[in-house]
């Protein structure tokens, strides 16, 4: 039957083979998001298509038109802001995590919600307020970081684990999706945890002075894999490299603690490779690393990510891409979230990857996000 010239085209009828050919030629993650948004059947093809290697994160940023009800994506390789508007509003909810395309938000009512802006799906979690160390002061800033072990929408990952660093002294709690309450991890209160990583079947947590814990979520038993051997670092991260090595990244600022008139900026990073004994699993030595080769690390409030830079044109190897993730009990210091850049491990130089608009100083800081459907 002929289609009237006044009718809107029905793109859903296109053959699957033709759609696959088009998808194969789309290199940009943004183009794949646009492809998936055409209609339901096209979106299904993107979700069901086998994943091709590692993705490079994109930066979730304010959109071009300053719409407070949506955010856009910034490509660090193309250095452009997309015209895709994701339904992520800038309001009282603070984003305290990004894992597998899911964002974690905490509110002043102690509620944590997982939100996937690409699929427009939400998962509401039990409140943290009954756990030890949870304060009623600045509740949305009491939760330091939330990470997921996997994408909760995939069938094979139905046992998705959620881990949160919370409270005045950075306590640790976890739950499996479907649980009615959080499980608190009991450990030395002198520890101040900075990051969490799921590594080779283990839940690992790192202290700001380098103490490494392994937590068995089935028994709630913890093991100390490495003791505190370093001076205090304001930010610490755990990240798995492209070849499976475990790295400890320590971040230092030019001014610490921050003052009202003296906003601290990242000065440098230190990177250490954790060498484990194969039988005991204990760390036998910390080896400082001056070169991470072709890897590029993406750090911040997101689940720490490593990619091969050579797989993405415009991505710098042997570098650390970082965002502004210093959150206290007040919603951002005078100049806004501006501490973002690319730290080169070889010459220790810093360059910008995204320059925020001054009018966005009161908005939440940009955060790295993976596109889960690709």
Automatic annotation (TrEMBL):
Any Pfam family: Beta-prop_KIB1-4
InterPro entries associated with the record: F-box-like_dom_sf (IPR036047), F-box_BR-signaling (IPR050942), F-box_dom (IPR001810), KIB1-4_b-propeller (IPR005174)
Sequence ranges assigned to domain F-box in this UniProt record: 11-48
Positions of the KIB1-4 beta-propeller domain: 73-344
Protein name: Uncharacterized protein
